[in-house]
């Protein structure tokens, strides 16, 4: 099942309090960026984020799910309706996210 543009738009609206949020469509999913770094994505209309330590601390009971078969597990964000929490989560994750690799 592919992710819908409507769900992407909903998540982006929830994160509209943050500057420099962007997305890129990739193989039926959407990769999500904050200030140039990948923090997660939308897979099958599920918001999944990288399991960096601050995200694990903020969501200690969250489920871990692979975005697609054979992939490393990510944290399922089930409280996407909580705009304030989502913004705090993404903002606090930024320091721990790997910098974008330059591909030549």
Number of continuous helical runs: 3
Structural class comes to: alpha+beta
How many domains would you count in the coordinates?
Answer: 1
Question: How would a textbook summarize the main sheet?
Answer: 6 strands, antiparallel
Distance between the termini: 33 Å
Our estimate of the beta-strand percent is 25-35%
Shape label = globular
The arrangement of helices and strands along the chain is HEEEEHEEH
Instruction: State the fourth-level CATH superfamily.
Output: YgaC/TfoX-N like chaperone
Kindly report the CATH topology.
Yope Regulator, Chain: A
Q: In total, how many beta strands?
A: 6
Helix content: 25-40%
**Any idea of the CATH class?**
Alpha Beta
- In round numbers, the mean pLDDT is 94
Model regions low in confidence, pLDDT < 50 over at least 5 residues: none
| Strand order, largest beta sheet | 1-2-3-4-6-5
Proper CATH architecture = 2-Layer Sandwich
Alpha carbon gyration radius: 13 Å
Pfam families: TfoX_N
Organism: Simiaoa sunii
Protein name: TfoX/Sxy family protein
Keywords:
single chain; 104 residues; alpha+beta; Yope Regulator, Chain: A; 6-stranded antiparallel sheet; 6 strands; 26% helix; globular; TfoX/Sxy family protein; TfoX_N
How would you describe this structure to a colleague?
Strand 3 and strand 4 form a beta hairpin. The mean pLDDT is 94. The chain is an alpha+beta fold and 104 residues long. The protein has one domain: Yope Regulator, Chain: A, CATH 3.30.1460. Strands 1-2-3-4-6-5 form a 6-stranded antiparallel β-sheet. Pfam families: TfoX_N. This is TfoX/Sxy family protein. InterPro entries: TfoX_N.
